[in-house]
Amino acid sequence: MAGVGMTKVDRHYDKGFQELAHMAVKNLLNDVKECSPKAIVVGNMLSSSLYQQDSLAALVADAIGLRGKGGFKVEAACGSGGYAVATGYALVASGLYDQILVVGLEKMADYPTSSVTLALAQAADFEHEAIYGASFVALNALVMRLYMHRYEAKREDLALWPVRMHEYGSKNPYAQLRNRITVEDVLRSAVVADPIRLLDSAPVGDGAAAILLASEDVIRKITDTPIQVAGIGLGGDSLDLSSREDLLKPTSILTASEKAYKMANAEPRQIDIAEIHDAFTITALLSIEGMGFANFGEAWKLVREGRFAAGDRPSINLSGGLKARGHPVGATGVYQVAEVAMQLRGDFPGVKVSKAEIGVAMNTGGVVTLTSVIVLRR
Amino acid sequence: MAGVGMTKVDRHYDKGFQELAHMAVKNLLNDVKECSPKAIVVGNMLSSSLYQQDSLAALVADAIGLRGKGGFKVEAACGSGGYAVATGYALVASGLYDQILVVGLEKMADYPTSSVTLALAQAADFEHEAIYGASFVALNALVMRLYMHRYEAKREDLALWPVRMHEYGSKNPYAQLRNRITVEDVLRSAVVADPIRLLDSAPVGDGAAAILLASEDVIRKITDTPIQVAGIGLGGDSLDLSSREDLLKPTSILTASEKAYKMANAEPRQIDIAEIHDAFTITALLSIEGMGFANFGEAWKLVREGRFAAGDRPSINLSGGLKARGHPVGATGVYQVAEVAMQLRGDFPGVKVSKAEIGVAMNTGGVVTLTSVIVLRR
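The joint structure predicted for all components is written out below.
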């Protein structure tokens, strides 16, 4: 990985896809000595359903001065960004191209919540879930209820995660939500789908993040601080929840992380820094357990004990996570990889750890249905 | 490439995404000794806009007995399929996975033409073209008008292409249109967007095609007749037509084919068999010229002279092309690669050539905006 650039996640009402991509790539250009990718991979979920716009790779190429470069969009619902990075890696590592630009790009905030909720429900199984009115948050609420019941976790215990995320978000200039909150704020916030409350949920926001990937042959011309993509794993699960054996065993995360750790020759306990997918509080807990950072049913206890905070191993979501950095859905996975890379380089502009050697980014689409895990090394 | 399978392109009103994918993969299983891909890449354009369904990789995995496999969708409008194959190649060639399943999958025929036309317009620039009523066929009509004017080609000359495609389609059991037509039929058919008539246009249809890609290490366990992916090139052009220097110089095809030929160490005159993107008659001509099979402005003359027919070098679109085999948009590129592979193996069930050594598949999205070129060798 040769360089990164991103925009603040925000309600960018005055900016289109092209402007957002341009802002992120402009920041990327300040991060590298040279940038001449031969093709572009765009991570995006909603451009078709909300903006009637396909062919996003061409739109982005036009916006950033790369007209004539081929490319395509990668879509795996909210997991699109991580898969886009994995695809970019494969295009370079296969020898097809020596530089690939990956842009995570999403606009959502122009639309009212009802439209966004409908569009996000496309991540679920339309025929078996969405058509019956099961929104994406409703499906996650079922899982959270089961988690609380089986593991005897209290609602107030599960409020600690978003409180911590807002604390980190308040220090991250790229974060959408910069305000601090308390456990009481979480418990008093509106019920979205019981037991999920507003402050358990990632906000709706627009954003773009860009990463330049390059082969070993050319990377020293581009940067003095390359970050190695050491491991990649892709995992899946049944699309509809009713087909799953156990809603609290996130098969897709287990599969993807096992593969990624093995390829990187790393173990969970060696990871210094992680960005995980906390679209809802329950998603954070499943992710922590699926990644092997906690035993099943114990993530909430470890969070209560203060684990995974800045300086712990791993330190998790120092960006503020999806909860506070924001979750421009198809772009999120690219943000995560960029943030982990900056932590490894030591130049992340928010809360950071020192001397991190190994980091991991975990991004998922659907109710932990399509997951990618990417291990980075300094 | 280890094996291929496809469904007849048709108006599959009674089949959903899962049934179509299942049919194609079932045929693939009859083509290989073993099939155990670790991840799935789906080529698709319209699932989100027409069917409110994202996360297609998980939907397909569930349908074909591969639950738990990770994957994602690749979208580049009508060029999605070719890019999906290119992505599958990269995932294998990078060493990430030793087997990857690529499924091209599209459903369109359930919807009335007006809805399909609107959805296909997403391939164009929404802000600069589609919103002003420029449908996808209207944009291609502008290009066809210019071609006829600059190169002094007559309308009846340009009717020869679809006549030939229907002839080939009549012999291909997987083709949507099996009827033969005449030049008079083309000239008398309804005007869609002058000068494009109905019989210049690919039909609306549903279909699925599957390809299993495998590394050199494992491919002999899977098949005795592997086909080598020898070259891949990706190319692009400005999304909106008004930004292009010359509408008759298809930059995206020129870029992609140059790269793919170079990687395959092949020249256009060496190609035995080709499947090119003839969504409209004008697209066939631009593709033939862009691929280096004819000089600019001369493809229509060569077609009139009988060139590119079965037995010529290259023989082009013996499947019947998009025009007659059909054009389930995001799946088409996978059909093309499968057809070229079968021609090289000598077991294509329609019109075929003997002893073909090198073949090429060329697929594009938008008005030749996002193109992939894939060279195969026996």
